Amino acid sequence: MKITEDMILSPAFEYAGAVTDGTIKTGKRIRLAVERFYRFLDEADSKGFYIDHEKGMRAINFFPNFLNHTTGKMAGQRFFLAPFQAFTIYNIFGWMDADGKRRFNTVYDKRAKKNGKTAEMAGLALYCMSFDLEMGAQVYVGATKEDQAKLCWSQAAQFIESPVSNPGLKTMGFKCFQREIKFSRTQSKMMPLGGDSKTQDGINSHVSIIDEYHAHKDDTVKENLESSSVSRRQPITYHITTAGTNLQSVCKNYEEAVIEVLEGRNEDDHLWVMIHDLDDGDDWEDENNWFKANPLVGYGLDLDNIRKEYIKAKNQPSKIPNFKTKHLNMWVDAPTIWIPNEIWMKNEVEEIPISAFEKFGSYAALDLSTTTDITAFVALSEPDEFGHRYIKPYFFCPADTIEHRSKEDRVPYRYWVDAGWLIATPGNVVDYEYVKDTIRSNYKDLNIERIEADKWNCEQMAQELTEEGMDVSYFSQAIGVISFPTKQFEKLVYEGKILHDGNPILQWMLSGCVIYRDANDNIKVHKGQSNKGGKRIDGIIAIIMALGGSMSVEEDTGGKYSKPDAEVYI
Fold it and tell me: Global pTM?
């Protein structure tokens, strides 16, 4: 294949040269992608492939010629592709087979969050609807949820309908409807498709964008789209994703397969791969390595914003896995331990002074769990003159289930009972009278001001304790309420301000805690997707509830607290 001067001067060849000579800093896998590109050039004639330079450049130029940015400081400006984007677009649309059809029918593109995935895919969709000249082309954005798929679809609609959009798209024949974008000249359409969409019938996909592939639990959506495209002349499946937290996911398994192709161990002449990530052994905290996963830095992505997210993660370590996956494009096994044992055990002390409870008062929390599991009652002292808090835990289990529980949970229940860490109540269910007796005998000694309880499983006991003159309050498990005391507990542990007496049950329970984080950055402790070894977390939940009660939670105002940070001793 003859390489023309126009090709050499194209953005794609310029990017390949800059990666090769080190002008553009990338990770190993992008360098492999560039080496593979040069190998394609060498093998083109023997394998019957060639580059149609005009088609490659037409696809690149579609973006600035027809698309304007629609949000932020660049709104209204023409959409010029960054070098790494131009490299991929040129190759996808420029390479042809001997029949004049697109060479690549599959793409795997992995990059960190905020590196232009959504806008680029929206632009690619509009280009394929129009310039592919495929009559009745159907373009689908496939995601786990239709709402996720709508993000890319909505961006495409904004390119058409935004007040700052390029009017050329409407002039060409693009029109937006409630769930479709249509292109009248070829009777093509673009639609979002989620695993929860009401129907996936009647699909005849020309372009299938598999959005955030890492989040897909299986390949149902992908396989449905790919099987529907067999009658198309030159269909394409574009996997676009950031790394995730499931090392057994379909995305991770697929990535391992495409890496074998990238590294030359397997061959697939119709697969295009771009993986922007750190190299094995790279220091994830060294920002000089962050460029590898964030190729848009300098082209609209501000490195300082990544620095800010890094600082948040360092200050709240439960955010580190999220920072690694979203901003460094690193696969992180999940669930990961919330607070490592070595951090927890650094804070062990010999004795917990009861005098602190007598002098400063305390809040307590009750987690009854089920009648056959461990029940936890925990008292938390109010801050002393140094801001220290102390926690006194009590745990209960049915005596008749100790041997069974020891085998199922793989921990020494019998030893805990003999050592006084665990109270065994007669029978095969927890005798709540023992729990109430413990609360009664310690209510005054620990100077308890209020007991926090989870209404769903403590209502009867809460009523009985209230009738005996104790102050009992229901503590909501809603994530918006429990998030703040959870974050405070974590912060204090990492600062070395929570001290404990080495209680092995608390140590075991903490090892079973993982963090769920919602879209609003609220967090909540849970056991994770699997509970191998039967781990319990009731004692840790009780500590967090007691801390929340002490900090005067106001559920009706969204979870606000009045007390300052204080050291906690357990």
Answer: 0.73
